[in-house]
Amino acid sequence: MTRPSFASVWLIASLSLLSWLSIPVHGQTLPNIPLNGPHPTTVLVRVVAHGAMVLGREVGGARVTITDVTTGQILATGLQQGEAGDQNQIMRTPHMMEEPIYSTRPSAAFTTTLHLQKPALVDISAEGPLAYPGAMQKASKTLLLIPGQDLTQDGIVLHLHGYLVQIERPKPREALIAKDDVKLRASVRTLSGSLVRPYGDWDSRKIRIYGEVVIGDRTVERLQMFYDEGSRTFEAPFFVPSLKEVPEGIILRVIATDLATGNTGMDQANYPVLSERLPSQPIQ
Known about the structure:
Blueprint: H1 6-21, E1 39-49, E2 62-68, E3 74-80, H2 87-92, E4 110-116, E5 120-128, E6 137-145, E7 151-160, E8 163-169, E9 176-177, E10 181-190, E11 208-215, E12 218-224, E13 226-228, E14 233-239, E15 250-258, E16 263-271, E17 273-274
Parallel strand pairs: 1-7, 9-17
Antiparallel strand pairs: 1-4, 2-3, 2-5, 5-6, 8-10, 10-14, 11-12, 11-15, 13-14, 15-16
């Protein structure tokens, strides 16, 4: 039996390698769009509270703007509207990296169709929640859009960090009586409007929530706050300083910070202080 020569073996191996290299790789198909545009290109943007739900109508939604980086031209702008999404799907269901999270059920989004002549580098920015200007946050991403290649399903997801913190009691600018015992009460929610409470999806036990009493530019006291289920707020008693100490009144501040996620929110209000109540006089 004649053994094949080295040259024959080399030729056969080379042909086999070339044959293998010529096999189309899965996913490398060409886009089925005309060579020249403009081409309608749908872009969906979803603005989400970091670690929480989508910013929907409950918190006023968010404003989205798409800008061409090269020319500075605004290509589209508008409001994200809709619902906050399915809490069970978003917060409790495990997902693979490529699986949609926010689009399996209806949730708020901003959708626009751009007519692109060529690939465009764009800046997509968002700000919200629009119903709470004091808690407004901004985020943006820069990415390349290809004519005719839509970005849908979850779309481009922008995360806004923060909490909605609101002092409920005493009401802002309400006069306080010097040397009175007063209860500070505040609500804490995610930017999507979800309640922060112990043992919930947004567990207040993992968040630093505290109050501060401020005189001028000095913080004079820090208050530990406790959750009250009846009012769904966090509470702390404090003692109003004497009128001599605070002729210009005081500032009450409530801060919520999650060091693990980077979410932080704050509310503060000014309060005039009146002279203490005089003891009632016996009737003559």
